[in-house]
Amino acid sequence: RRAIIPAVDLLAQCDWIENHVAAANPRSGWQSAFAAKPALLELLRPLPVATPKPRALIQLRNAQGQFEDFRDTERTDRMRRRLEKINEAVNSARVELATDIGEWQGDFLVLDRAYINLRQNTLWRIFNVDFGHGGRFYGPGVQTLPKVLRQQLRLNGEPVAEPDYNSHHITILYALEGLQLTGFPYDIDPWPRNIVKRALLVLLNAPTLQSAIGALTHDSGLGLYLADARRLVQALKHKHNPIERHFHSGIGSRLQRIDSDMTESVLLGLIRQGIPGLPVHDSYIVPARYEDVARDQMGEAFETIINTYSASRKRKAHQVLTINRSYTTIAPSPRLPPLSVLLFDPQRRLTSLGRSVALDALRRRAVSQDVMASLVNVSRLTLANILRGRFGASEKTAARITEVIAQTPAFERQPFLPGIAA
Fold it and tell me: In three state form, how does the secondary structure of 122-166 look?
């Protein structure tokens, strides 16, 4: 900081660069930036080739919008492996735009003082506060292009199409409620469509009604007075009554987590079919001849992810009852029952059969590894290592795991009954 800021200030004073200083607030949505002026570029010729900065594939921002470290888990490792597979495919794709569009400086396309590197295709995911919020894909230079220019791209030499999800977050909310969105969500007389759309997005992202009204009245692009903002909010609540409870609840970041999972599913599905694709959040740039295939993949991803989250919501509601009605540990048997001979080897490592039926017991009881770990009186990490066969269990732990498996009902989602707990 002591070196760069004075150097940038000096370059600006010498009229070598254009210096754009953003507000100090990290959540303002803008970063300070500087760009070389033509005189400096002339001195630097030949222009250097763009060198991508190394970035973590999985990133986490705190409540202040600053990036922070986190401890990897099985889930983050899995997301990273999938992202590596996606990046291997997208980095092999060739993205081109006609050279007569904008001004080219080396590898960069300059549009309205923005420098866009179309050779940058690597994707990374950014989560907000925790891994249940955000998670959208960022990185490709095409994401910063206006849509009208994205339509003129060439992907591996072919013209492109960009199918997208219509009214994506609203449609997701209706689907989570078991309903289907009908009609046009942004058509409310006498309000212009762009104002209604913006107001609806504000309602989904604002944490309170007061903050939503404040955001609408302070948005210079909307031009709403306080009374107008209140009337528009009431009109939106009336039109979208089935999902009204989600308004001004801050659910927007949670919806980004859901739509980013859909993006991951779409990209992996396209890769399996040998089709290149680049995401722009809720739309996908693909060769035009594969547009129908991409739309089919998008529909499949939507159904799969919505079903996953709907089931997850039901499981979470059930787990609350399960935890409240259950005890913290399973009573150990005085000796290992005969079933343990099939589940554990002589070193008390889970056999392949043991791992299979243990995971099946988790699924049938609809509990997480955290809950199972507390029931068998070990840490979650210890249980995870036992389930993976990394090391053996103690005699008491093996007995408790065996008893859980033995007393798992044949039908699904049955809570642990007090009668089997100590």
Answer: CCEEEEECCCCCEEEEECCHHHHCCHHHHCCCEECCEEEECCECC
Q: Are 278 and 140 in contact (CB under 8 A)?
A: yes
C-alpha distances (whole Å) from 25 to each of 28, 153, 223 are 5, 35, 24
Burial of 127 (0-12, 13-18, 19+ CB in 10 A): buried
CB-based burial label for 131 (10 Å; 0-12, 13-18, 19+): middle
pTM comes to 0.65
> How many CB atoms neighbour CB 326 within 10 A?
21
Bridge partners of 18, per DSSP, are: 35
Taking only the tens place, the pLDDT of each residue in 197-244 is 999 999 999 999 999 999 898 887 788 899 999 999 999 999 999 999
Residue 34, C-beta contacts closer than 8 angstroms, at least 6 positions apart: 8, 11, 12, 17, 18, 19, 20
Residue 135 has, within 13 A of its CA and on its CB side, a CA count of 22
Q: What are the pLDDT digits (tens) for 235-265?
A: 999 999 999 999 999 999 999 999 999 999 9
Residue 176 structure tokens: 């989570």
Cα dihedral: 181, 143, 255, 240 (round 10): -30
Q: How long a stretch of residues is the chain?
A: 422
The secondary structure of residue 113, as a DSSP letter, is T
Q: Judging by beta carbons within 10 Å of its beta carbon (0-12, 13-18, 19+), is residue 61 exposed, middle or buried?
A: middle
Cα(94)–Cα(276) distance, integer angstroms:
9
234: which residues sit within 8 A by CB, 6+ positions away?
Answer: none
Prior bond of 46 cis (ω within 30°): yes
Q: Could you read off the pLDDT of 360-402 as tens digits, one per residue? A: 887 777 777 778 888 788 877 788 878 877 667 888 888 888 8
Distance CA 60, CA 193 (A): 34
